[in-house]
Input
Amino acid sequence: MRARDKAAVSALRATLAALDNAEAVPVGEAGSRGLALEQSPVGAGATEALRRELSESGVADIVRAEATERLEAAAQLTTPAHADRAARLRAEASVLLRFLDGDGTA
Output
């Protein structure tokens, strides 16, 4: 991806972060935190929690939600002073929607 395509880079970074957050295990599911020192796990990776595996439809839902969020934010920016920001948000949403349509995988 070209470095000058800032809208695409911004949209993809934010969406990757949203996907990463969706794969995280909630704290309650990660195991008990109140162990005594002698009962604590030891060794490299002993406290690592497995990540959730997202389905293809789950990933598509998150990407769609990110695009929708940008379109809704752009719709809120109605003043001429915010026209550039609204255009950038629409461009970011367009990038994400292309991935959902299958045209953005190149």
Remarks:
- The longest helix spans residues 56-76.
